[in-house]
């Protein structure tokens, strides 16, 4: 037993001095709460509930204020008041009584009193002052429980001004002999530090003492304070770095008492605290960082158990490594670790991986390149949170080359996002990206952007527009001369439309800002037009009117017609506010303007002109064509290039010519054309050169010519891209889709490194593939507590099976009913199989069968068919041990159940498909797949029919491809009900590793020879089974029973054990009793097998 | 001075609610006004209940990250700051369930409904001001039991006691270890 446990246990008797008097009053009082709860449950409407609670509250109110109410009754009343408060009803009348209860009650009543206070009152509530005396009294109490309660409430809430009153008492408790009191005192001081840091300045050295406390709990509590202190002032605590490293070393090394373990991980919260502290200390400090490298490495290595908590630690570890002074091999390992996260099939891990990546790319943008395909997949992830996190990541790698694409992606997201906060946040990021990278931004983004801002503003609240206005005003207040013209135009438009939203800002301020733009030499006349239009919209009165007048006068004599026009408008409208309101109504700016793009209103004019002999209109491209034809050059490539580029348009599905600006090599060429963009200089130039005068040379150098054409043709280039990346880790269904992603990748990740995008992609292939393989092994086995996964059920509960046992309160959906059929956690295939009594009987080789329909002996429409299903087991299997039959789903009168049978050399999955309806089911198809298992079946039972109330049995041979803690099988069944369309359902089945483990019988000599030959190993300490005379034997016995391990020999405190995975993959285990633990060392020629097996052992021992 | 709570796994709040959207427990670790509380509770229930199974356990809500998890008929839902480690918060929830389970023995929603004050006591031992306090499962229970041995026999609700008005579902254990 550990120190801490012993301490607390010995403390117990002294704490039990108070006697309890179980009384009949308790029962009745309790049933009052029970009655209330029951009453509420029976009600049907919210209104009734309200009435009931109001009645109840009146009753409580009456009783609490009655002088005859005992404290015991008061306690019960308070519990009811808490309940009512939780339902959302005001119980302010009881606040004072809660304090009274805390003051006057005995220990138990006091506890409820304190609880009520902490739930009812806010930190700033004035009644809290009344609590000070009570706390003071309890802190001095000789009853430890009272002291504990006082400290608990203090660390939850305490009036800031009253801290000095109790501070000495709390400080004193730091020296208390009981660890729990010391721990709580430390946390109370932490609380004080948070709300009033100055008050605890003088006791900093006492914190040090707490840090050195012999009890890990107290030490761990003190880390809260240190984390805060170090975060604020890392310089002041550099001397502690070695101590923190030592502590972490001890924790990671398993030196803490066992009861600090959480799922076999030693004190994870403590570890994470230390990692965070270390990252603060090591930031920008090489010498401090150097002392932590070793332990960080160790942490990365140790945290290999597949449990969420180890991933949480890994995440912190990676963050720490990237925060402190860099060390290349650690960075490499951390990067690999991030790879595991990002590529994980588990969505939570993927999320965390993206988050880690977001953090890391700020240090090392190249890391994003390795995962570009995953990132792109995440962009299309159905879960919004993943999408959002991906955008966050992209935001961090924005540079002036990819900003266009990234902002577009953000805008895409904006359109589906419904949350105001997200919208504002993202728009802010868009603005930020655009502002910092405006140099190369192409015009389209700005136009798009402005339009979208407007689009959003229709639906979203004012804030968004205000944000735009504010950020633009601040831009204009700075040096605007460097902003691109297009951007200035957008600014003008936005300010003209929306600056009225800022009530605190007079329009003339904005007009002055805009006028500044007019005076700038760099402003083009087009921009000036926009400025004038904005001024027209603002149309101020007062001081700025003179300015406006001035401006319009200046420009009304301009040479530019447009400018002159605008100036005229400004002049007229600024003088006639009525007309201005009519022409430019404010509210209309939010409505989409209807444009008659066919210009039908001009029809009359056109026909008149034609009749008068005018030449018919020719569109620009026709004119150009005619013009070029007149030069008599061979222009065939025009015809060729245009359709191809159009087709690329359809592939990339983007209409802006923006990517041209970021074109580097192929990726740029492979982009698209808008109609405006078809005038692109780039393409036509290239073609002309090739087919123009040089075209005559083409015959001389045909070989050189061809690739150049290809390079100019987007489809070909995309092909090339695809070929170069045929190894990319993403299995995409269609080549187009792939290409699209590739293109997206090259445009997103351009400029992250010096190499050209193609090189980068080629380079990134190898590492990411490696990561991927690695993750599957670990990723697949991480959902450890979940014995079975049912897609049809409405829960992602890790601790699943109990849920399945439950019918629901308010009419569960039909998919949930199978749970009813499998009582007592029958779904836990793992447990069953491990406990199952294994018989080793030689059987004839299994014959894979088609679905064979046979009449069921029981015609049981209720579906309570579990017992009968076993009778359908094929004869050659029925003698072998099999897991309990599990209902996988039940829908539309079709029930599917499965179990697995353990043969000596393999495992057979048996699936029962039963038709519970009264009609035929046709075309039943079943397909079973697994990533880690080889699934073999003769065929997939084409179009079988199933008579009513009969059962079809399918068998699948399972062999392990790759060891894992669990093997997930995913299956699809489709069938044709008598009426209606075919149905398809997916389900999954999970097998534990133990199903494949068999005893390996060998001699000690053989064991010795094999031991040295095996290369993959792992070590860990396991819990011994206590109690018996010989804990080693007891532990081995359990392992033998549950995992089929073969104990080769036991010598003193050591034992050697052997087993194998499906006959040919041995794993050897060496056990040694040491310091109350069983330290085991596993070796195997198969990678991952030792880890997985170790986990099974742990599980087996924990399950006792 | 940077007084932000940036680098802490400090929870803002913890809510337990049922599949029917009934609040079972609420704990606010930072001062929150009544109105704000009601809004948060309403939003959480609306946000979390329709989530499909096997989607991410994390959500964004305003400037907070929401971490939720379903145990049988009960949802555990915590709000934390953006910078925090969501996976860790998920384990905090799990740990709390484990502690409840250890204390009540196969804890089910009914236990929490009828003994919610006990659930609060356990929470107070485990989380203080939103920070994980005790890494030792054993110690939490010991300090709970200290007080409990004083207490009259724990009200352990046998299902028959309530069955006539509440359906079975509430008595489903939240988890098994």
What this model shows, in words?
- The complex is a heterodimer of chains A (1104) and B (177).
- By secondary structure, chain A is an alpha+beta fold.
- In chain A, 54% of the residues lie in helices and 11% in strands.
- Among the domains of chain A are: 112 residues, no CATH class; 80 residues, Leucine-rich Repeat Variant; 135 residues, no CATH class; 122 residues, Immunoglobulin-like (Sandwich), CATH 2.60.40.1230; 107 residues, TATA-Binding Protein (2-Layer Sandwich), CATH 3.30.310.10.
- In chain A, the strands form four sheets. In chain A, strands 3, 4, 5, 6, 8 and 10 form a six-stranded antiparallel beta sheet that branches. In chain A, strands 13, 14, 15, 16, 17 and 18 form a six-stranded antiparallel beta sheet that branches.
- The N terminus of chain A is likely disordered.
- Chain B contains six helices and seven strands; from the N terminus they run E-E-H-E-E-E-H-H-H-E-E-H-H.
- In chain B, a hairpin with a 4-residue loop joins strand 1 and strand 2.
- The longest helix of chain B is centred in the middle third of the chain and has 19 residues.
- Chain B is globular, with a radius of gyration of 16 Å.
- Chains A and B meet through helix 1, helix 2, helix 4, helix 6 and helix 8 of A and strand 2, helix 1, strand 3, strand 4 and helix 2 of B.
- Chain B: It is a peripheral membrane protein.
- Chain B: It is found in: Cytoplasmic vesicle membrane; Golgi apparatus; Membrane, Clathrin-coated pit.
Q: Report on the biggest sheet of chain B.
A: 5 strands, antiparallel
What about the largest sheet of chain A? 6 strands, antiparallel
Using the coordinates above, name the CATH class of chain B.
Alpha Beta
Provide the low-confidence segments of chain B as ranges. 1-7, 150-169
Tell me the radius of gyration of chain A.
38 Å
**Pairing-aware structural class of the strands and helices of chain A?**
alpha+beta
Mean pLDDT of chain A: 71
Task: Please report the two chains with the greatest interface, counting residues with C-beta closer than 8 angstroms to the partner's C-beta.
Answer: A-B, 111 and 91 residues
The gyration radius over C-alpha positions of chain B equals 16 Å
* Terminus-to-terminus distance of chain B: 45 Å
State the distance separating the first and last CA atoms of chain A: 18 Å
Structure annotation, total helices of chain B: 6
Topology pattern of chain B, helix = H, strand = E: EEHEEEHHHEEHH
CATH topology description of chain B: Beta-Lactamase
């Amino acid at each position: 037993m550990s120190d801490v446990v012993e301490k607390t246990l010995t403390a117990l008797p002294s704490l039990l001095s108070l006697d309890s008097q179980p009384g009949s009053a308790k029962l009745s009082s309790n049933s009052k709460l029970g009655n209330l709860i029951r009453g509420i449950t029976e009600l049907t409407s919210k209104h009734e509930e309200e009435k009931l609670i109001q009645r109840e509250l009146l009753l409580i109110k009456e009783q609490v204020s009655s002088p005859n109410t005992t404290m015991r009754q008061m306690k019960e009343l308070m519990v009811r008041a808490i309940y009512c408060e939780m339902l959302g009803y005001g119980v302010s009348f009881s606040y004072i009584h809660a304090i009274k209860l805390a003051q006057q009650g005995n220990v138990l009543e006091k506890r409820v009193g304190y609880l009520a206070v902490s739930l009812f009152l806010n930190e700033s509530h004035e009644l809290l002052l009344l609590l000070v005396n009570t706390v003071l009294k309890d802190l001095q109490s000789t009853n430890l429980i009272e002291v504990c309660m006082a400290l608990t409430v203090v660390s939850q809430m305490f009036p800031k001004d009253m801290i000095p009153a109790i501070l000495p008492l709390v400080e004193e408790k730091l020296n208390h002999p009981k660890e729990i009191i010391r721990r709580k005192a430390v946390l109370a001081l932490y609380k004080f530090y948070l709300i009033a840091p100055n008050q605890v300045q003088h006791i900093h050295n006492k914190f040090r003492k707490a840090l050195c406390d012999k009890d890990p709990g107290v030490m761990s509590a003190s880390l809260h304070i240190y984390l805060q202190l170090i975060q604020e002032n890392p310089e002041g605590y550099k001397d502690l770095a070695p101590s923190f490293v030592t502590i972490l070393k001890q924790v990671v090394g398993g030196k803490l008492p066992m009861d600090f373990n959480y799922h076999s991980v030693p004190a994870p919260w403590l570890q994470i605290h230390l990692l965070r502290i270390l990252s603060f200390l090591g930031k920008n400090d090489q010498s401090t960082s150097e002392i932590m490298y070793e332990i960080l490495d160790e942490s990365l290595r140790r945290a290999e158990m597949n449990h969420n908590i180890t991933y949480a630690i890994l995440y912190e570890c990676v963050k720490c490594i990237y925060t402190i002074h860099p060390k290349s091999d650690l960075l490499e390992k951390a990067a690999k670790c991030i790879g595991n996260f990002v590529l994980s099939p588990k969505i939570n891990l993927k999320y965390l991986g993206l988050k880690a990546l977001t953090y890391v790319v700020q240090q090392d943008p190249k890391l994003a390149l390795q995962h570009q395909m995953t990132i792109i997949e995440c962009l299309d992830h159905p879960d919004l949170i993943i999408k959002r996190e991906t955008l966050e990541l992209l935001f961090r790698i924005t540079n002036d080359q990819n900003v266009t694409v990234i902002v577009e992606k953000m805008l895409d997201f904006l359109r589906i996002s419904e949350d105001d906060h997200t919208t504002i946040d993202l728009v802010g990021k868009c603005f930020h990206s655009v502002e910092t990278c405006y140099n190369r931004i192409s015009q389209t983004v700005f136009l798009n952007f402005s339009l979208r801002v407007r689009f959003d503003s229709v639906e979203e609240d004012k804030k968004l527009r205000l944000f735009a206005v504010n950020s633009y005003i601040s831009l204009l207040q700075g040096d605007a001369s460097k902003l691109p013209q297009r951007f200035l135009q957008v600014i003008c438009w936005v300010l003209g439309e929306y600056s009225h939203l800022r009530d605190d800002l007079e329009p003339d301020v904005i007009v002055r800002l805009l006028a500044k733009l007019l005076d700038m030499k760099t402003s083009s006349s087009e921009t000036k037009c926009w400025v004038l239009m904005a001024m027209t919209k603002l149309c101020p009165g007062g001081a700025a009117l003179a300015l406006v007048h001035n401006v319009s006068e200046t420009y009304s004599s301009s040479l530019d017609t447009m400018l002159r026009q605008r100036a005229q408008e400004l002049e007229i409208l600024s003088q006639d506010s009525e007309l201005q309101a009519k022409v430019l109504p404010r509210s209309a700016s939010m409505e989409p303007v209807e444009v008659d793009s066919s210009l039908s209103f001009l029809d009359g004019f056109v026909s008149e002109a034609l009749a008068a002999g005018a030449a018919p209109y020719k569109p620009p491209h026709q004119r150009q064509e005619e013009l070029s034809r007149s030069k008599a050059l061979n222009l065939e490539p025009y015809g060729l290039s245009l359709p191809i580029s159009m087709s690329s348009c359809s592939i990339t599905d983007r209409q802006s010519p923006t990517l041209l600006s970021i074109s580097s090599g192929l990726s740029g060429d492979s982009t698209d054309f808008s109609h405006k963009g078809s005038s692109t200089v780039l393409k036509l130039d290239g073609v002309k050169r090739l087919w123009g005068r040089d075209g005559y040379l083409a015959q001389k150098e045909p070989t050189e010519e061809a690739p150049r054409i290809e390079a100019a043709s987007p489809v070909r280039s995309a092909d090339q891209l695809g070929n170069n990346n045929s190894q990319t880790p993403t299995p995409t269904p269609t080549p187009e889709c792939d290409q699209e992603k590739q293109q997206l990748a090259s445009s997103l990740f351009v400029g992250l490194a010096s190499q050209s995008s193609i090189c980068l992609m080629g380079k990134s292939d190898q590492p990411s593939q490696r990561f991927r393989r690695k993750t599957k092994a670990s990723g697949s086995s991480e959902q450890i507590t979940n014995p079975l996964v049912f897609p049809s059920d409405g829960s992602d509960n890790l601790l699943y099976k109990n849920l399945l046992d439950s019918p629901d309160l308010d009419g569960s959906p039909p998919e949930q009913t199978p749970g009813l059929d499998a009582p007592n956690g029958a779904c836990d295939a793992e447990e069953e199989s491990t406990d199952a009594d294994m018989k080793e009987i030689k059987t004839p080789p299994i014959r894979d069968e088609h679905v064979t329909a046979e009449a069921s002996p029981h015609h049981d429409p209720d579906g309570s068919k579990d017992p009968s299903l076993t009778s359908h087991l094929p004869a050659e299997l029925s003698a072998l041990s099999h897991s309990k039959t599990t209902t996988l789903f039940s829908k539309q009168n079709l029930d599917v159940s499965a179990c697995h049978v353990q043969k000596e050399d393999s495992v057979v999955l048996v699936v029962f498909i039963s038709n519970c309806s009264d009609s035929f089911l046709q075309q039943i198809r079943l397909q079973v797949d697994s990533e880690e298992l080889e699934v073999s079946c003769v065929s997939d039972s084409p179009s079988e029919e199933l008579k009513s109330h009969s059962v079809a049995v399918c068998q699948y041979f399972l062999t392990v491809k790759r060891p894992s803690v669990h093997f997930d099988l995913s299956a699809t069944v489709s069938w044709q009900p008598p009426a209606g369309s075919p149905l398809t359902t997916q389900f999954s089945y999970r097998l534990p590793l133990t199903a494949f483990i068999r005893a390996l019988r060998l001699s000690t000599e053989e064991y010795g020879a094999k031991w040295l030959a095996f290369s993959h190993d792992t070590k860990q300490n396991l819990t011994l089974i206590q109690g018996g005379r010989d804990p080693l034997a007891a532990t081995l016995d359990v392992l033998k029973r549950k995992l089929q391990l073969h104990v080769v020999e036991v010598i003193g405190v050591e034992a050697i054990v052997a087993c194998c995975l499906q006959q040919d993959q041995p794993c050897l285990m060496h056990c040694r009793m040491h310091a109350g633990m069983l330290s085991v060392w596993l070796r195997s020629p198969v990678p991952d097998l030792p880890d997985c097996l170790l986990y099974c052992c742990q599980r087996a021992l924990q399950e006792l | 001075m940077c007084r932000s709570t940036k680098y802490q796994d400090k929870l803002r709040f913890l809510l337990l609610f049922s599949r029917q959207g009934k609040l079972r427990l609420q704990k606010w670790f930072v001062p929150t006004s009544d109105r704000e509380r009601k809004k948060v509770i309403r939003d959480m229930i609306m946000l979390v209940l329709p989530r499909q199974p096997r989607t991410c356990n994390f959500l964004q809500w305003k400037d907070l990250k929401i971490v939720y998890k379903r145990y049988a008929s009960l949802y555990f839902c915590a709000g934390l700051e953006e910078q925090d480690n969501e996976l860790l918060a998920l384990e905090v929830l799990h740990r709390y369930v484990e502690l409840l389970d250890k204390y009540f023995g196969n804890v089910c929603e009914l236990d929490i409904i009828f003994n919610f004050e006990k659930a609060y006591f356990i929470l107070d031992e485990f989380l203080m001001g939103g920070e994980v306090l005790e890494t030792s499962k054993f110690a939490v229970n010991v300090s709970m039991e200290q007080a409990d041995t004083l207490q009259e026999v724990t009200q352990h609700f046998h299902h028959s006691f309530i069955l006539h008005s509440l359906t079975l579902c509430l008595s489903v254990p939240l988890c098994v270890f």
